[in-house]
Task: structure prediction
Amino acid sequence: MSKRKVALGPGAASLILIIVVLALCMMCMLNQIGARSDYNLCTRSAEMVQRVYELNAQSEQKFAELDAVLVKARKDAGDMNAYLKAVEAALPEGMTLEEDKVQWTEPLDNRNLQCIVQLLPLEEKQRAKWISHKLVVDEPEEDWEW
Amino acid sequence: MKEGGRANALLVELLLVIFFFMISAAILAQVFADAKLKSRTAAATNSAMLEGQNIAEDLYGADDPEAVLKEYGFTSEGDVWILEQKGYTLKVTPKIEETDSGTLRTYEVAGIEGEKTLITLPSTRFIPKEVSP
Result:
């Protein structure tokens, strides 16, 4: 049996090194790109969720302010009309009264949290109740980033 | 003589190749580690966000929020409620504010990874109280 000599000439090792390192670099780059985009997507999503929760918290604080006004107005008013007038006169900034509904908007960039609260009759123990509490996106659909 | 010179050149080349390979491997290992860390943080943020939302919504609707926290497995450490999860910690801080007309109840649900706060979700609810005219 004759032994066959493997010819590993000068430059072969360097060539293999270049190929291996390039392959590793490629894998590394793809891995890094994937991880970074995952991270960015997650961070943006978490930020948006957090801001929506902050908006909800703000709307509850506004509701508390409104309820304080309602308590005061109920003490002074004799009938529903006088009550509504007293409420309208003392409404916190940014709120409007339409019939027996108070509405306001909590802005967030291109989104708005629309809040509507119904004032209940004087005979009822509960003073007001949530009617609507929804997040509306103003941005037209064509401008959405996909 | 010629054969020996060629063998020496090959040896030097191999040494250089090993040296450069080690340098590149060290650099690439760091990049891989960074990518893994980023993926882990992303996964933890995502889980903390989902779990945090569930807890925040449950706390909003609950008549007895402490019972809800206990049901989730939270343990009380002073005023703060803590729950260890895989890769992150959930921390709930209650804040009760009494107003003239009711109670403003806020539970701040935070997802924490090490020292870093991943997400903070305030779950606020106003509970009106009966006021005699």
User: Anything to note?
Assistant: The longest helix of chain B spans residues 2-61.
